[in-house]
Design brief:
Structural class of chain A: alpha+beta
CATH class of the largest domain in chain A: Mainly Alpha
CATH architecture of the largest domain in chain A: Up-down Bundle
Shape of chain A: globular
Distance between the termini of chain A: 34 Å
Strand order of the largest sheet of chain A: 2-1-3-4
Oligomer: homodimer
Number of domains of chain A: 2
Number of strands of chain A: 4
Largest sheet of chain A: 4 strands, mixed
C-alpha cells in the first residue's frame, strides 16, 4: 500500500496534529506535507471543503479532521475496534472540535470584539467543556478516554490542552485547564510522557 | 443485547434524526425517548455535554451526534467496514455538522442580527458548503456519499437538505439547494423514496 500524505499547515498543533502524532506513534510511514500560510490561498480551491487537514492516498482525498484521525487511528492501532468504545473515542474528539471551533472562530474579529468574545467563552462554554471532558475521562477510569488505552481521542485532547496552556490564545487564561480540569492536565502530562511523543517533539525542536 | 435508547428532542429532524432513520431502516429495535422542550432544562445536567442527542445502552451513555450515527450505523449495516469508505462517510457527516452548527448558532440572536447573519451565511458559507458537498457526491458516483450504497452519511445529508428546503429557517432561501446543488436535491429524493423512510414518515404523519 502507498503511504498516505497528510496535508496541513506548517504548525505543530491544531486540527492536523493528532493525525501526525497517531502515525508517528503507530510507526505508519506518511508524507508530512506542511503548507505555508503564504501558499494556502493557491491550494485552498483544490481541497474538498476549502480547509485543512486533508489526507491523500492513491490519488484520492478525504477531508475533515476527526474522520482523518479515525482513518489513521485504524492504521496506527490507536482506534477501538469495539463499536461502543469507538463511539466514546469519537465523542471526546467531537467535543474538542466543538469547543475549539468556537474559540478559533474568533480569530479574525476586531480586537475589542475578540477580547470580549474570548473572555465570555473562557468563563462560560470553555470552562463547561473542560469540566465535562474531565468528568468523562474520570468516568472511564481517569487514564484514557476509551478502550482503557491510548487512542486518537487522547491525542486530540492532548493537543487541545497543550494549546490552551500555551499562551497562544489571547484573552483565555493559560491556567484555565489547571484550575477547571486538573485531571485533563494530568492526562496531558501522561500523553506528553509517551516515549514516541517525547522523541517526536524533541526531533521537531518543539518545547512541550 | 439490550436495545439502545436514543434521547433526542421531540422533533422529526436535526441532529438526532439520522440515527433514528438508520435504526428504522436497519430494523434495529430502539427506544425513541423524545424530550419535550419544556423538560429539557431538567434533563440537561444529566447529559455528558449538556446537549442532545445521547445514546444509552446497558446503563452507559454516549454523546455527540455523528459518533452516535456511526455506532447505530454499524448496528444497522449502514456504515462502511472499509476504512477509506468510512472516512468518506465521516467526511460528509462532519461537513453537514460544520455548516449546520453555523446556521443553528444564530437561533437566539436578536431579530435584525439573525436576519443579517443568516443572509450572509446563505450567500457565502452555506452556498459554498452545498456546492462542495455536491462535488463530493458527484466525485463518488453521484448516487451515494460512500461505499456505493446508502450509509448514515446519506441520511445525515438528507435530513439537512430537507431542513433547508422546509422553510423553517427564516432568511435562508428555501430554493437554495435547488439552485446551488441540484444533485443534492436528487440525492434527497433518492433517500426519501427508500421504502423504509417513506413508511416511517407516513407512520409519523410527517409530510416529506
Amino acid at each position: 500500500m502507498a503511504s498516505p500524505k497528510l496535508v496541513y499547515f506548517d504548525i505543530d498543533g491544531a486540527r492536523g496534529e493528532a493525525a501526525r502524532l497517531a502515525m508517528v506513534i503507530g510507526g505508519v510511514p506518511f508524507e508530512d506535507d506542511r503548507v505555508k500560510f503564504a501558499d494556502w490561498e493557491g491550494r485552498k480551491p483544490g481541497t474538498p471543503f476549502g480547509a485543512l487537514p486533508v489526507l491523500e492516498l492513491d490519488g484520492q482525498t478525504v477531508a475533515q479532521s476527526n474522520g482523518i484521525n479515525r482513518y489513521v487511528g485504524k492504521l496506527a492501532g490507536l482506534y477501538p475496534s469495539d463499536a461502543w468504545q469507538a463511539a466514546l473515542c469519537d465523542e471526546a474528539m467531537d467535543a474538542v472540535e466543538e469547543i475549539a471551533t468556537k474559540l478559533w472562530s474568533t480569530m479574525s474579529l476586531p480586537a475589542a470584539e475578540k477580547k470580549a468574545q474570548r473572555e465570555s467563552l473562557a468563563a462560560g462554554p470553555l470552562s463547561y467543556s473542560l469540566d465535562r471532558l474531565q468528568r468523562r475521562l474520570v468516568a472511564h477510569g481517569g487514564q484514557y478516554f476509551s478502550d482503557g488505552r491510548l487512542t486518537v481521542a487522547d491525542l486530540k485532547v492532548f493537543v487541545w490542552i497543550r494549546h490552551l496552556r500555551s499562551g497562544q490564545l489571547d484573552h483565555v487564561p493559560v491556567d484555565l485547564p489547571d484550575r477547571v480540569a486538573p485531571r485533563l492536565v494530568e492526562h496531558h502530562d501522561r500523553v506528553k510522557a509517551h516515549p514516541a511523543v517525547k522523541a517526536y517533539y524533541a526531533e521537531r525542536k518543539v518545547a512541550l
